Amino acid sequence: MGDRGLRNDSREVRWGILGAGHISHRFASSLKKVDGARLVAAAGRTPAHVEELSRAFSIDAAHGHASVDDNGNAAYDALIADPDVDAIYLALPHGMHTRWACRALRAGKAVLCEKPAVLSEEEALSIASTSRERGVLFMEAMKNRFCPMRTRVKDLLASGELGRIVSIESVQKLDYGESPSGYLLDPLQGGCLYDMGCYAVGWFEDLLAGTCEVSSREVRWRDVSGGRVDWADEIHMSVGGMPIHMVCDGKATYESRLTIACERGSLEIERLHRPELAHVKYSDGRTLEINAPFEIDDFYGEIQHATQLIRAGKLESPVMPLAATQRCAHIIDAIRLAL
């Protein structure tokens, strides 16, 4: 991981937000708890949403940008050009990430980008190239990488107590309802694989080395304007030769878990996208419960980490490096091409 210029660990990182939806409010609430970070600007396409976000988090009116007629383009450009903004939290729909991440990086703004950061490995390579060329930090906000549970899981597996991993299963089920967020119904960027499946893929990428091979994918489609989106997926695949069974379902009773089967037991992680609780079952009958609550909330870890990297002049995260974003995209590409 490289450095950029002189370190200045004491400087304040001034954040701007691209996108003024619900997730931006959650980000802004957590950001208030991060030392050395301050929210100074926001941009969106809906004036009322930008005004609401600005009022809620004391953003000066001069730094609240909205432009409804051009899908927010002028507002986003204005925030990126703002000299009072050091870093950008990119909370736009997935299909807009690559364009606006690259524009921000070219303007010298560090970027913390919501998951999935990209829709393809090609897009990941474009962002990585721009980040390295301009010498500016880009990090995907894959929140389960920045939760205390991830460290506990990695340490347990590294200890050898459970032996080698022999298979992994991920199950993610919820009910999106009849009128979900618009991006979920977009044939380009919608569906459950991108929206929730990316979290499971993030775990696979983190735990397993080697190439991805998909043996089967069964999909329940939902017809939408202009095409269709995957509303449920069941995938059998492997990463580095390790068998994986992956289930995503957007019309089901809630369930979220990652089960890692090992030679001498298993580890089941609840709520795999933001885990705080896990259960270990040893082959000899012993059990162990792992409690690893968030520090503040599920956004805090990733924001604190990104802020520290920016203050230290780092160009890449050791926890979610550019190569990890690229590899996650590669795995999702392989799944999407399996039909």
From TrEMBL:
Residues 152-268 form the GFO/IDH/MocA-like oxidoreductase domain. The keyword Iron does not apply. Gene3D superfamilies: Dihydrodipicolinate Reductase, domain 2, NAD(P)-binding Rossmann-like Domain. InterPro entries: Gfo/Idh/MocA-like_OxRdtase_N (IPR000683), Gfo/Idh/MocA_domain (IPR050984), GFO_IDH_MocA-like_dom (IPR055170), NAD(P)-bd_dom_sf (IPR036291). Residues 13-140 form the Gfo/Idh/MocA-like oxidoreductase N-terminal domain. Belongs to the Gfo/Idh/MocA family. This is Gfo/Idh/MocA family oxidoreductase. It comes from Collinsella aerofaciens.
